[in-house]
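Regression test case RT-17, inverse folding.

Input:
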């Protein structure tokens, strides 16, 4: 099961923008991808009006939203347990979705098999709870919306979270290249980083995109 958490710009009441805007869920649902890696894809949407609990209750970390998300995942897993590998539940998220990933992993550290947070931010104090979880995080160093080092509302960005994970005991494998490389070159760099991680028995990868 791949659960995708959209960014703040996709909060809406149409149950469509979270699919069409950044096409994260679509990527996993494409027929060619399904033939290679069959999976359920669950792509919930946060409705309007935008929920907020204080300055850091950004969407997926809002208490009511997160409780509903957990209930949705648990219900889906229960209803599809006959043909769903419950040991392979994955989180994928962008921006505030990345923030939601770090929050959810820390609260349910034994549920998810791996996560792909892009341009997220979070609480360094919770990183020690998730050192065992395979993560591949990425972030542009010049991100104007969610800063690379210091995230939204002054909370640490991906760079700081990865350093904190490493200090807590996780071995982090780092790569850096331009995000606008031709697709073949981008994939080659990514595969090389994955090989490097496997060779060093690292399960946390961090890609930084340069201007």
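Golden output:
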């Amino acid at each position: 099961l791949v659960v995708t958490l959209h960014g703040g710009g996709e909060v809406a009441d149409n149950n469509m923008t979270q699919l069409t805007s950044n096409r994260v869920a679509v990527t996993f649902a494409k027929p060619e991808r399904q033939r290679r890696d069959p999976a359920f894809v669950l792509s919930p949407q946060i409705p309007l009006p935008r929920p907020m609990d204080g300055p850091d209750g950004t969407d997926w970390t809002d208490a009511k939203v997160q409780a509903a998300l957990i209930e949705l995942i648990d219900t889906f897993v229960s209803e599809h347990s006959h043909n769903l590998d419950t040991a392979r539940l994955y989180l994928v998220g962008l921006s505030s979705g990345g923030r939601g990933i770090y929050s959810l992993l820390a609260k349910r550290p034994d549920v998810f098999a791996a996560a792909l947070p892009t341009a997220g931010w979070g609480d360094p104090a919770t990183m020690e709870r998730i050192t065992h979880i395979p993560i591949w995080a990425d972030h542009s160093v010049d991100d104007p919306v969610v800063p690379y080092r210091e995230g939204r509302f002054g909370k640490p960005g991906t760079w700081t979270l990865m350093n904190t994970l490493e200090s807590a005991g996780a071995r982090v494998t780092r790569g850096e290249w331009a995000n606008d490389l031709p697709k073949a070159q981008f994939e080659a760099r990514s595969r090389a980083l994955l090989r490097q991680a496997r060779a060093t028995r690292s399960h946390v990868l961090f890609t930084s995109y340069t201007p």
